[in-house]
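chain below, 257 aa
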Amino acid sequence: MRINKYIAHNSKYSRREADRLIKEGRVNINRIPIKDFNYQVQKGDRVFVNGKEIKPKGAYELTMVVFNKPKGSLVTKKDDRGRTTIYHLLPGKFRHFIPVGRLDFASEGLLLLTDNVNVATKLMESKLPRVYNIKIDKMVTDDMIEAMKNGLVVEDATAGAHKKSKIKSMSFAPFLGFMVRGVTGKYTKLRVMINEGKNRELRRFFAHFGAEVVELKRVAYGEIELNNLPTGKTRYLSTKEYEWLHKFLKGEIDANS
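prediction:
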């Protein structure tokens, strides 16, 4: 693993900060100062930053938090257009944490973040249920219900996508569940449960039927729920949530079927 990535994954420092520390001569490998930004950390290497050893985390040693992402923020470290990112909003002690998946600029709700890249990857690649409250600007049609129940393949799924997205076609798996929560005028509120996290999946799905998703809020990921966490705030997992997460990480919960 490249030295800056190793430091970022196992400490509070970002990759950019790790590069600065290397440049300033504050990083040692086996007590020898390192200036090679491309150095690959090998098994048995001891890495020190400012004289303190950076020890690799165990595969599933972790801290995880729930963040209630507000609309109008990006899930990225830095935006070249100067827009607000989640890292502007997170407390400093969580600014090196890795997001589990994405919520787009106009979406809000539950975003998991962790200091362990292995855990983030395993969660993102799983088929754990994700639950969303959404609002569309149409009535629910029989065609929508049929597609939610049985899945759908769309050759041109660019409607509802970001204009720069390179993903054109998309296959939508059957929803795990859905229910209409209310109808007001032309708008319909739904709660839907899916087990994939494809690029703007729900926006693309409903756009195929000529409906725009005007509100989208994730309220659960696996057994972790948003509950009453205020917008823009974070919380640690509860003991019960950590117990569930460790069972998932040990393979005791089937989340890939």
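The longest helix spans residues 239-249. The two ends are 31 Å apart (CA to CA).
thats it, cya
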